From TrEMBL:
It holds the Pfam family IL28A. Belongs to the lambda interferon family. GO terms for molecular function: cytokine activity. Residues 1-21 form the signal peptide. It comes from Spheniscus mendiculus (Galapagos penguin). This is Interferon lambda-3. InterPro entries: IFN-lambda_sf, INF_lambda. The gene is IFNL3. It is found in: Secreted. It comes from the Eukaryota. Coiled coil: none annotated. GO terms for biological process: cell surface receptor signaling pathway via JAK-STAT; defense response to virus; innate immune response; positive regulation of immune response. Gene3D superfamilies: Interferon lambda (1.20.1250.60). Keywords: Antiviral defense, Cytokine, Secreted, Signal.
């Protein structure tokens, strides 16, 4: 009888000992972007709804925008993984900044879900960058694109950057997916 009651007690003590030997923070510090490999349909629908609403608003306005920020001669899959992470982080920084701008109340409501999703993805990517390649130097392709982004931020109107970003959000999501896959993708 003593042996039966001793076994659960031993399991409890060993479990507690192992818990202190491997702190919970150590488990949280792994870099996993796997949740972005297959984007959840309701997140995609929220982005589609916002993009459609924005396109309808744009039809009523006279926004002229000639920036070709998201038109690249190379594909994200051609970049090494650390470059992909840097690219997507920059894209997500721009997207969250543009979705966070003041706007009409109805459109602001439509933006909330995509903004929350993209903000979370950006934070997850930042955690991975800090762990995997904190001092990575971007390749020539990426460095050129990052310079193009900085120039666009200085020379383009906020409305132009907002329009370009929202209209290319599915490209940003595809780049995120490609980065999460960590292998060649299309």
């Amino acid at each position: 009888m003593l042996c039966l009651s001793f076994t659960p007690l031993l399991a409890l003590v060993l479990g507690a000992s192992l818990g202190t030997a491997f702190p919970q923070d150590a488990l949280k510090k792994s870099c996993s972007l796997s949740k972005y490999q297959f984007l959840v349909p309701h997140e995609l629908k929220a982005v589609q709804k916002m993009k459609k609403q924005f396109e309808d608003i744009m039809l009523l306005s006279d926004r002229k925008c000639n920036t070709r920020l998201f038109h690249r001669k190379w594909n994200t899959a051609e970049l090494p993984v650390p470059d992909r992470v840097m690219l997507v982080e920059a894209e997500l920084d721009l997207a969250t900044a543009m979705l966070g701008l003041p706007t009409a109340p109805k459109f602001a409501e439509t933006r909330q879900r995509p903004l929350a999703f993209l903000t979370q993805a950006r934070e997850d990517l930042r955690g991975c960058m800090a762990m995997e390649a904190p001092s990575h130097q971007p390749s020539g392709k990426l460095r050129h694109w990052l310079q193009k982004l900085q120039t666009a931020k200085k020379t383009e109107t906020v409305g132009c950057l907002e329009a370009t970003t929202i209209l290319h959000l599915f490209q940003v999501l595809n780049d995120l997916r490609c980065t999460a896959l960590r292998e060649q993708c299309t």
